[in-house]
């Protein structure tokens, strides 16, 4: 078991014990999708790439890669991004 895995395991156990949502303790992104037209990403670290067909967002240890048509960043806040358009795929890439 690597040091990173050990830390994540301890944090998850603390989250369960203290009844705190794991996305807060583990510093994980929260991705919410409404149909194929809107996507919210919370707890992001910034935009890596943006075009009408592709958006890549840094979420810590990996990135969220979205492909589609007519993609538009509706809101960019320090802790949340709202993406709209015709979403074809969402991938978590390490």
Short description:
With 94 residues, this protein is an alpha+beta fold. The chain has helices at 3-18, 22-25; strands at residues 30-34, 38-42, 46-50, 54-58, 63-76, 80-93.
Descriptive overview:
The two termini are 18 Å apart. The chain has helices spanning 3-18, 22-25; strands spanning 30-34, 38-42, 46-50, 54-58, 63-76, 80-93. A 6-stranded antiparallel sheet has the order 1-2-6-5-4-3, with no helix packed on it. The chain is α+β, with helices and mostly antiparallel strands. The chain has one domain: Immunoglobulin-like (Sandwich). A hairpin with a 3-residue loop joins strand 3 (46-50) and strand 4 (54-58).
Summarize the SSE layout with pairings:
Elements lengths: L2 H16 L3 H4 L4 E5 L3 E5 L3 E5 L3 E5 L4 E14 L3 E14 L1
Antiparallel strand pairs: 1-2, 2-6, 3-4, 4-5, 5-6
- Care to count the β-strands? 6
Q: Would you state the CATH class?
A: Mainly Beta
Number of helices in the DSSP assignment: 2
Named CATH topology: Immunoglobulin-like
Low-confidence regions: none
Give the averaged pLDDT, no decimals: 88
Principal-axes geometry comes out as elongated
Which CATH architecture would you pick? Sandwich
Q: What is the helix/strand order?
A: HHEEEEEE
Rg over C-alpha atoms, rounded to the nearest angstrom: 15 Å
Number of domains: 1
Instruction: Strand order, main sheet: write it out.
Output: 1-2-6-5-4-3
Spatial gap, N to C terminus: 18 Å
Strand content: over 45%
Structural class: alpha+beta
| Biggest beta sheet attributes | 6 strands, antiparallel
